[in-house]
Amino acid sequence: MYITRVSAYIPEKIIDNAHFEKLMDVSEEWLLSRTGIRERRKAASHENTNTMGIRAVAAGLDQLPFDVSEVDLIIGGTYTPYDTIHTLGHAVQNFLNISDIPVLSLSSACSSFANALEVAEGYFASGKARRALVVLADHNTAYSDETDKQGGHLWGDGASALWISQEAHTDQDWKVLDILTGGAGNIGKASESVFLRPAHEGFQMAQGRDVFQNACLYMAQVTQKILAKNGFQVQDLDYFVPHQANLRITRHVAQSLGLEENQALSNIQYLGNTGCAGCSIALWENQSRFQAQDLIAVTVFGGGYSYGSVLIQV
Description:
This protein is an alpha+beta fold. It contains nine helices and 13 strands. The strands form three sheets. Strands 5-4-6-7-1-8-13-12-11 form a nine-stranded mixed beta sheet, sandwiched between helices. A two-stranded antiparallel ribbon has the order 2-3.
């Protein structure tokens, strides 16, 4: 399975730390020490999860090495849906005007990147598809409470699109060597640590310490596991792309793996936590840095304590 193209959409509006300093009566030092975030992006009033996903898809249409009509599977990933019936995947299908193909949307919280690729892999293996479009979008600011001192300052909005094929189209395609996913929903405070209950409490980060501890543990473990399964060691990694949740988590996991700081790609400092789109936005931002044969581990951890890692060779 190959990633043929990665594209993204990032809203224009910037919310800097000064906004939260006034709102929460905290200092920028307090915010930076906990998250590493200086600013984050916020969708405009006319934007939503579906429109951002469509913008990310539109950005990838130029120089696509196959006709868009050949896409025979669309998978949307989000935990902040604009519409729970006409889903992200269906909105993208309508935009592309492709009929009679499988379309679905899924959520494994911020791990949806890995699970969506895994679903595409399954469709390819069963012979039901050959070219897939994975769209990831989260409109976190639509649900978050900015006055929530524990987590209101974390969130940003954004979307990404990955064009996936069963076979390589050009020598620029990235090969997906393996995908590992898992769930630790029975561990620690997984059921109450971070949640989004629109009809009740809304968006809450209730147990940040437990999230931090388990994210650091599982992200390091699954990265080591997928490398070993494919005959690699951590020293073979060129880049590590973690879920963009917290700069402290990124640094802690990279350090525990023995990676150099510049090997861990991060955008949370200026985008905020963009949910399940964050990792692929980082791939899109840094693609010009990647060299032929580079080995990249994209590792995710989400609410409900879902986790996973995708091993990519450029």
